[in-house]
Amino acid sequence: MSRPLPFLRLCLAFAVAAYALTARAYNLDTDRWKTTPVTMQLQLGTTPVSLIDGNTTWGAVAEDALATWNAVLTNFKFNVVRDSTAVQVRGNRINNVFFSPTIYADAFDSRTLAVTLISTTSTNGVSNGYVEADVLFNSAKSWNSYRGNLRFNGSTTINDFRRVAIHEFGHALGLDHPDDIGQSLTAVMNATICNTDTVAADDIAGARAIYDGGTTFTAPAITTQPIRQTVAAGASVSFSVTAAGTAPLAYQWRKDGTNISGATASTYTIASPATGDAGSYTVTITNSAGSITSTAATLTVTAAPTGPASRLSNLSVLTTLAARQSVTVGFTMSGGSKQILARAVGPGLASLGVGGALPDPELTLYDSTSTEIAYRDDYRNTIDTAATAAITAVGAFPLPTVSLDAALVRSISGGSSAKVAGSSAALSPSTNAGVVIVEVYDAGTGNSPRLTNLSALNFVGTGGNILTAGFTLRGTGTKRLLIRAVGPGLTALGVGGVLLNPQLEVYAGQTKLTSNDDWSSTLASTFASVGAFGLTVGSRDAALIVDLSASDSGTGYSVQVSGVNNTTGNAIIEVYELP
Known about the structure:
Layout: E1 2-4, E2 8-9, E3 38-43, H1 58-70, E4 78-81, E5 95-100, E6 102-103, E7 106-107, E8 112-123, E9 126-138, E10 143-144, E11 151-153, E12 156-160, H2 161-173, H3 201-211, E13 221-224, E14 229-232, E15 237-240, E16 242-244, E17 250-255, E18 258-259, E19 267-270, E20 279-287, E21 290-293, E22 297-302, E23 310-321, E24 326-345, E25 361-367, E26 372-376, E27 379-380, H4 385-394, E28 402-403, E29 406-422, E30 434-442, E31 450-460, E32 467-475, E33 478-486, E34 502-508, E35 511-516, H5 524-530, E36 542-549, E37 555-563, E38 569-577
Parallel strand pairs: 3-4, 3-5, 5-9, 10-12, 14-22
Antiparallel strand pairs: 1-8, 2-8, 6-7, 8-9, 11-12, 13-16, 15-19, 17-18, 17-20, 20-21, 20-22, 23-30, 23-32, 24-29, 24-30, 24-31, 25-26, 25-29, 27-28, 31-38, 32-37, 33-36, 33-38, 34-35, 34-37
Helix pairs in contact: 1-2
């Protein structure tokens, strides 16, 4: 006897409901594998290009998916035959895994990514269990392999072979679709493939219920409760919990009894708390054996400490990048930890009337040790809710609902940098070039912590391709700034092809406020006071000090760097807050 398990369909919605302890779609009858290990014959071939996750064969991805199930089961294991030449036919008791345009001559429907076909036998009416599980992937679909949230090419989903394979091999174990029977929970076995990219608690519990029935499962127990906190507004605060119990453990933090979106780790951090964040915080911990809720921890938020009357609130750089060229923006957060919003906007510039945009920018954030701490390729406002909220809060122009632009929110302290280039995952990386704007915003409130240094390193051309950076001063009164345009001074830092004689001009709107060609040695002590790297006396770098007005709504300024006599080369714009 044979039966197809439910098809895995294309995802129509990206929201994934919270895990709930309800009846699961486990197969608890006698139809399961009665022997172990079970050998899967992989007949998937090589990939036309290297996949996003670096693999070059579909078989390697399939083996990883099988290993994911092996890692959570004790009494059952999959084996593999790589590059198998076994005959692809139903009923031969061989577990074929392959791409196909049909389901053994029956058509795939337009929404089906893959299907698992199970065969069973019986003797005198008693089931012998599974004897064959063929897994067929729809070859009419385009495929890749990666980790994390679903990715998109425009509005089209990039089908992730790995998570689909994990799902189908779950069917080969005997698991069905929990959402087909009305359950609402996080599971890779749900019928519509979404952002869950590996086995979740419900998937593991189901597989163990079938094959590890004798295994003891221990409900969660809290060993360290979250503790009450009192912090100043704008200062980062974290709650944490330690728990024991059968893995995996799922966490859900609540404020005043209401779930906090995205707060699903053992630690919950509020990067820049405001008075509205004060309240009672608990966390519920769940696994396949039960759940437990922590004692309440109270958060008290006091008034923010007094800081300067004004601050640097954002930096933006508009530039043109050639294919595989990048631009780097640096910034320093002084006085503690605070959230920033970083964006790399190419296609979104169309709403501003800018043509020739970079089709698909990617954004990578680094800390002061040049360690990558965040990455974003495509923006989607239904998933990037933190970035969407920050874009509105800081008054940045909106991005399309599903956009190939990049945006992220991150809490930082000290020095950081953002690198922007054409996406390596773009359809045509070799032609991924054009105009892009890189933006960094202070996404918190109050003037302490605050941005005290902003910089932009890029190639300086001529005409419309000179290096221009905009920044905003928010608050009251005036702010004294040191502004530099460094070309020759970059040589000592290992930068080649420098602009030999930069000049800088400072503008408010279209009005030029001040300018400098060659810096004065009297500024050397000022450089040292803000931690700026030194310049050789007599070099043709440019630097000046200027007092600029701030406003509550923000006053914008720009710095233009060009080469004397239309020369070109690499240069850096730097803006430092002075006492």
